[in-house]
Design goal:
- Helix content is 33%, strand content 14%.
- It has two domains: 209 residues, Rossmann fold (3-Layer(aba) Sandwich), CATH 3.40.50.300; 221 residues, P-loop containing nucleotide triphosphate hydrolases (Rossmann fold, 3-Layer(aba) Sandwich), CATH 3.40.50.
- The chain is built from 15 helices and 13 strands.
- The protein is of the alpha/beta class and 442 residues long.
- The strands form two sheets. A seven-stranded parallel β-sheet has the order 3-4-2-5-6-1-7, with helices on both faces. A six-stranded parallel β-sheet has the order 8-13-12-9-11-10, sandwiched between helices.
- The protein is globular, with a radius of gyration of 22 Å.
Length: 442
């Protein structure tokens, strides 16, 4: 089946073809007809499945009106609102809207924090058909009375699970109250958790429900490997792997912003060009680092989980878990950055004795054992005792241990009991709740 079979306009098909896409992905096969039909939609899809085109293409088709002669002065109404959790994802989605709608007389805009609000206010004085926004900055505009959402016809909540994780539920409720009651609602989520079901029940009206991959499934073409290593030698091992295998595009995950900075500094000192992105970096710095990484001029990008949302590289070959995530589901989100759209990719995890329980939780979640391979010269010392992971970090190389920042209103996690070292992994259990810091998208 081709995109032309959906009945999309010739202008959209032309733009899609120019991007090199000919065969729809499974999520697109189901989502595009559902959105074109005009009803509400609840879609479960992992990252890298093509879900962005799954809603942007039919939205562009529905909003197309050949009688409109392009952007005009004044304030024509915003007709589609796409809410996303992070600035990087907003930039990615809005770029897709522009690319797929390049031959249509429709206008789009990105609205994110971390940049001057005044150019956004000026932009809103001209025509904006499709607005892609993070909740915090959107509410800033509402407060300043520079934004009118009373004519929105289509609402998209993209990566709704992450928005809930980041504490956006109150902001979402405020935004929903500003929208007309008669509208089309599209909710996309990597996981269809109980919390997402509750949100869907309150938001959607008799939705079509689609789920293209089983919950918490990993991509088929990802090659997983665990390298056991002492916590003090993780940085050395990472630099060794990058140099030995001559990796050119490596996305490395750390638990904390401070850890990301320190790791990038260490890699640079080791002769490996690297940059870190996280919520404390300016938007300009984040955008620049991401652009260099996408073009391949920057070999290594070190990121926290939140900052990595929106990284969409069609053939990203390597994802490294420098530290395992405290929440097992985040392993699926992380490695979803590689092996996209049928490409192959490697998911490498550097695991110290502190993280054996986290590894067990991940394997239980994805229902498979991850192969383990010790690298010669980096064999773990069996005499090293496990240390508790407190506030998102474990005892690590000097300069990398720190207390993790907590969102306002939350207290720090209690220290876990010290575990004895050993070969056997601890019994499976629930990992400590992860503090998903990274800002509110303002």
């Amino acid at each position: 089946m081709s995109f032309a079979n959906f009945g999309l306009s010739d202008e959209i098909i032309r733009a899609v073809t120019e991007r090199g896409y000919t065969v729809p992905t499974p999520i697109q096969l189901q989502a595009i007809p559902a959105v074109l039909a005009g009803g509400d939609l609840l879609a479960g899809a992992q990252t890298g499945t093509g879900k962005t085109a799954g809603f942007t293409l039919p939205i562009l088709h529905r909003l197309s009106d050949k009688s409109i002669k392009g952007p005009s002065s004044g304030r024509p109404p915003i007709r589609a609102l796409i809410l996303v959790p992070t600035r990087e994802l907003a930039a990615q989605v809005e770029e897709s809207v522009r690319d797929y709608g390049k031959y249509l007389k429709l206008s789009s805009m990105i609205m994110i924090g971390g940049v001057n609000i005044n150019p956004q206010i000026t932009r809103l004085k001209s025509r904006v058909d499709i607005l892609v926004a993070t909740p915090g900055r959107l509410l800033d505009h509402v407060q300043q009375k520079t934004l009118d959402l009373s004519h929105v016809e289509i609402l998209v909540l993209d990566e709704a699970d992450r928005m809930l994780d980041m504490g956006f539920i109150r902001d979402i409720r405020k935004i929903l109250a500003l929208l007309p009651k008669q509208r089309q609602n599209l909710l996309f989520s990597a996981t269809l958790s109980d919390e997402i079901q509750i949100l869907a029940d309150n938001l959607l009206n008799k939705p079509v429900m689609i789920e293209v991959a089983r919950r918490n499934a990993t991509a088929d073409k990802v090659t997983h490997v665990v390298h056991p290593v002492d916590r003090e030698r993780k940085r050395d091992l990472l630099a060794h792997l990058i140099k030995q295998h001559r990796w050119q595009q490596v996305l490395v995950f750390t638990r904390t912003k401070h850890g990301a900075n320190k790791l990038a500094e260490y890699l640079i000192a080791s002769g490996i060009p690297s940059l870190a992105i996280h919520g404390n970096k300016s938007q300009a710095a984040r955008t620049r680092a991401l652009a260099e990484f996408k073009t391949g001029s920057l070999p290594v990008l070190v990121a926290t989980d939140i900052a990595a949302r929106g990284i969409d590289i069609s053939e990203l070959p390597h994802v490294v878990n420098f530290e395992l995530p405290n929440v097992a589901e985040d392993y699926v989100h992380r490695i979803g950055r590689t092996a996209r759209a049928g490409a192959e990719g490697d998911a490498v995890s550097l695991v110290c004795v502190d993280e054996l329980k986290l590894l067990t939780d991940i394997e239980r979640l994805i229902k498979r054992d991850l192969p383990s391979r010790v690298i010669a010269g980096f064999e773990p010392d069996p005499r090293i005792k496990a240390e508790p992971i407190i506030n998102g970090r474990s005892g690590g190389p000097r300069g990398m241990t720190h207390a993790r920042s907590q969102p306002s209103g939350r207290t720090g996690a209690k220290p876990a009991a010290r575990r004895p070292t050993g070969i056997a992994r601890p019994a499976a259990g629930r990992a400590p709740a992860q503090n998903r810091s990274g800002g509110r998208g303002r």
